[in-house]
Amino acid sequence: MADNQQDQAQFALQRIYVKDLSFESPKAPEMFQKQWQPEVKLDLNTSNRPLEETLFEVVLSLTITVENGPEDNRESAFVVEVQQAGVFMAKGLSDEELHRTLGAFCPNILFPYAREAVDNLVLRGSFPPIMLAPVNFDALYMQAREQAGQEDHVVN
Questions:
Q1: How far apart are CA 31 and CA 130, in angstroms?
Q2: Backbone conformation region of residue 78, classed left if phi is above 0, alpha if psi is from -120 to 50, else beta
Q3: Alpha-carbon distance 151 to 147, whole Å?
Q4: What is the pTM assigned to this prediction?
């Protein structure tokens, strides 16, 4: 019975924290006098690394670049960079389950915290809030796996 419990898949969140964050507004305060016509660009990335045999750090990196003004004359309003991280315990998972957990499930847990950090920084910069839409990390994970498989196939 004890062996059966050890073989069972286990997952637990150990800690969530901000690893790095940055806010830049190079054109403030002049930007506040212009009509607000923002164009928002979101770059998103995830990474993970083992800390111990069953502990892993997962980092969700967001870079939001906002330009303002008419399409023919956009200027940088601000740039926000957030690295939201977490330490997760995972054991008893197959390699595929572990990859999916670290690549899709954990970023899903971290995203609301990253979104809150972004919103807080933008508001402190005196700009209107940015409502980041939910992200389908499962679809992004599957897309990345397919691309990696195609690249492996081309190389071979």
A1: 16
A2: beta
A3: 6
A4: 0.87
Between CA 43 and CA 11 the distance in angstroms is 28
User: What span, in angstroms and rounded, lies between the C-alpha atoms of 56 and 124?
Assistant: 32
Q: Which residues are CB-contacts of 2 (< 8 A; sequence separation ≥ 6)?
A: none
Identify residue 46 by its one-letter amino acid code: T
pLDDT tens readout for residues 116-148: 999 999 999 999 998 899 999 999 999 988 888
**Is the torsion defined by CA of 141, 60, 105, 109 positive or negative?**
negative
How remote is the C-alpha of 156 from its chain's centroid?
32
Contact between 115 and 46 (Cβ < 8 Å): no
Eight-state DSSP code of residue 152: H
